[in-house]
């Protein structure tokens, strides 16, 4: 692979329904507006939804790459704002139970991208399955999407605890989604840190809140990204603010700042190294 720095960001959430995929897509488009070349990997293998979320149809998916029928470039589809999307197959249980070689082969396919990518956003499945853990541990940055619901906070804490205790992850970036006011976002972050500060040795950073906005619901119904069809909506403005913060995150001045680190880490996770 080329020695081109790539920011690899896993967007995850302990609970389903917190808007994780919406955050992934709109953050990607906002980063593209800043001039970044962005690829979104739908890593919810088996229950893919980004293509549905954006109303994009694809004749080929990751499954075809694994079968050796095509390469990754042939699978990628163009999304709004110039982002590229790697769609996963929906309803295919085998893809949620990849073996070591298949999982490694999937990510190795990204070597073909070379210098043609600045940011890789990995939209994981919900929960703490092996596949979710592998992708999160391989990424450089982890964005944890949380909503102001007891189950979301509890599940987010459980995910942080597992990743910290069993896999040594220390830093987590927190996005409060669907908050009524900026104050509510900070209050939600405070609820989470109150528990993590007491029981865990982790560093949580609040990177912003996305307001509850009817424009998001309307965009979803239209199978569009809110930042694309309602660029002046409150949520769209918040996503652009989030993108500016993410864009300012420094790349590690080590091999960890390159895409091959992501590949190596994922393979190591798969084989239990």
UniProtKB/TrEMBL annotation:
**Keyword line:** ATP-binding, Nucleotide-binding
Q: Name one Pfam family in it.
A: ParA
- The question of whether Nucleotide-binding is a record keyword is answered with yes
What molecular function terms (GO) are annotated for this protein?
Answer: ATP binding; ATP hydrolysis activity
Q: Name one GO cellular component term.
A: cytosol
Name a biological process GO annotation: negative regulation of cell division
Keyword match Transferase: no
Q: Where are the transmembrane segments?
A: none
Q: What is this protein called?
A: MinD/ParA family protein
Per the UniProt record, the source organism is Parathalassolituus penaei
């Amino acid at each position: 692979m080329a020695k081109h720095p790539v920011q690899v960001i896993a967007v995850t959430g302990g609970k389903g329904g917190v808007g994780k995929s919406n955050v992934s897509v709109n953050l990607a488009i906002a980063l593209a507006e800043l001039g970044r070349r962005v690829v979104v990997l739908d890593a919810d293998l088996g229950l893919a939804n980004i293509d549905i979320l954006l109303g994009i149809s694809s004749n080929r998916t990751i499954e075809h790459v694994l079968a050796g029928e095509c390469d990754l470039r042939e699978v990628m589809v163009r999304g709004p704002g110039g982002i590229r999307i790697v769609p996963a197959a929906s309803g295919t249980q085998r893809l949620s139970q990849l073996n070591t070689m298949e999982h490694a082969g999937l990510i190795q396919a990204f070597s073909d991208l070379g210098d043609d990518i600045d940011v890789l956003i990995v939209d994981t499945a919900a929960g703490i399955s092996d596949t979710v853990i592998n992708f999160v541990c391989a990424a450089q940055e982890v964005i944890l999407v949380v909503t102001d619901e007891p189950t979301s906070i509890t599940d987010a804490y459980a995910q942080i605890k597992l990743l910290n205790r069993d896999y040594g992850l220390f830093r987590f970036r927190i996005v409060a989604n669907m908050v009524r006011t900026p104050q509510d976002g900070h209050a939600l972050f405070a609820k989470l840190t109150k528990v993590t500060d007491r029981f865990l040795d982790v560093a949580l950073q609040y990177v912003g809140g996305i307001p509850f906005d009817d424009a998001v619901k309307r965009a979803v119904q239209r199978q569009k990204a809110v930042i694309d069809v309602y660029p002046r909506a409150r949520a769209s403005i918040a996503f652009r603010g989030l993108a500016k913060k993410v864009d300012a995150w420094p790349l590690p001045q080590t091999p960890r700042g390159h895409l091959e680190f992501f590949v190596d880490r994922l393979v190591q996770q798969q084989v239990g190294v």
